[in-house]
Each structure stands twice: as structure tokens, then as C-alpha cells.
Amino acid sequence: MIRHTAALAGAAVLALTSLSTSVASATEVGTTAACTLNAGSVTAAGAQTYRTVTSTIPPTAGTQQTTANVFQAGAVRLSSTFTDIPNYVGSSRSGFVVIGDSLYIRGYTTDGSDQIDQTYPGGSTRIGGGWTPYRLIERSAYRPLDTDIPGRTHFYGLRNDGVLFRWNITNGWKTAGSAAGFAAVKSMALISQNASYDTFLANTGSGALYTIRIPVTSPMKPVVKKVSTSGWSGRTLIANRCGQYGTVLLAVNDAAKTGALYAVGHANGLLTVIKALGNVPTSFGNPIQFRWGPESEYLNGE
What we know:
With about 300 residues, the protein is mostly beta strands.
């Protein structure tokens, strides 16, 4: 069982009145090449979907693939990014989900028709309980270039009371700090990772947009910067690397079940350039949205 006993380390309160309100640069983000984001979802029936969204103007969406019977119907409450690693027939997939009060890692392989390969069906391994009060989870696996061994893997969980917890799961699960002050956060998307820190792009219930940089050092002391003052309420954020320093950002409107795509320049507080690319021509009506990612990635959005 994972023990949620890490001491609170500092306060990174998302108070609108405590941050700068200067106007961002009007310079547009460069769009020399289209970027892609692999958007996933968990359906009410327990299937997983996979669709590639491309940052053309207007954005385009590929054909949705659906893998049936990954979970029991209605069981999954939270999902992290899932990795998708091609193999000689289909792909190997894995990621974390919260089912009931427990955290699980789910892994399986697919066949040539994108269904679970019954020869290697995988399964779900329970990590531990105590996850009922959590509303967001994510994993960051940073691997130094030219190596086959992850340099570090951190797992994050945001509790309903606004405390953000971190675990180091490189060699088993070890508590790695926590910080209070994030009760206003509605959604978080990982946009940067290196040997020194992880950075999330987060929106609040009031519609503001922030970066949350979390150094790997202890005690855990996040650095919060406002990126945009309004317009991001009621949205689930999914992000992927775009170019050397940028991010392609999908904002799913939870009420309307629609998605809008943005090109985000290298994050720099209120000077961050955000270019609206348009609405994605597909519905995002399934209960849970998440991102598909590769085994190794080098997010560099901040």
C-alpha cells in the first residue's frame, strides 16, 4: 500500500492577486511544420481509443482506433499518460489508472487489428489503496539521451484538498515530497522534463493558465507562473512537444465535448505566446481523456 504521509513542503498557492498581470507578447508562434498529438480516451464501456490530432490550420483528426475490453465498464476514474510501443505485430501499451480506491498499472499488447492480443493479454497490477480523494494523476519518465535506462521516473497525484504529492518510482515507490496550494487546479498537462525538473501546464476553475515547475530536489518546492489570465475554465488539457522548444496543446471543453488546438511557445510566464489553431473536427464525448506517448520523450516546453 502506498503511504500518503509525506510532509507538506512549502505553499505554492495559485492566488490571482499575487501574480503579475502584464500583457503577453503578440508575436505569433512559428508554424513551419505541423505537430501531432495522440489523444486517447476511456469509454463508458471500458475501451480505450487512440486518435492522432495534427496542428494544421484548421486542425485535422485521424481515424479513431478503439481497443475493446481494456477495463470493466465504468470502472476507471483517473488515467495517466499511456505509452504505446510498436512491436512486430501491433504494440505494447501501459499506463496507470485509478479504479475505486486503488491505483493500478495496466499493460497489454495489441494484435494487427488493434485489439488485445489474447496470446499476450497482460493485466492490471494493483499498486496500492488510498486514492479516493485524488482527482489527477500523471507520470514523468526522464531518460538521458543515448541511454536505455531511465534517469528518473516520478509519479504525481493531486488530492482534492489541493495538496500535490510526488513519488519516485525509479526503483520501487518512495515518497518524494508534497506541496499545498493547488486546490484551484482543474487539469494539468506535462510539458517539460529534464534532469532537474518537471513542468506542468495547469488551468484553474476561474480560467487562468499557469506553469508549475517542480524541481527534483528535496524538499519539494514548485515554482508557479501565470501564463494567461482567463479563457481556460472547464477544460481538460492534453499536451505534446512541438518543435525544439514549443508545445501543441489540446483543450477539451468538458461540457461541449469539443476540442480546440493551440500552438504554445516556450513557456515564459505572461510573455508566453499562445496561438489558437482552431477546433478539432471530432467529438470528445468519452468520460476520460488522456495522452498516448512514446517510451522515451524529451518534452521541452519550459
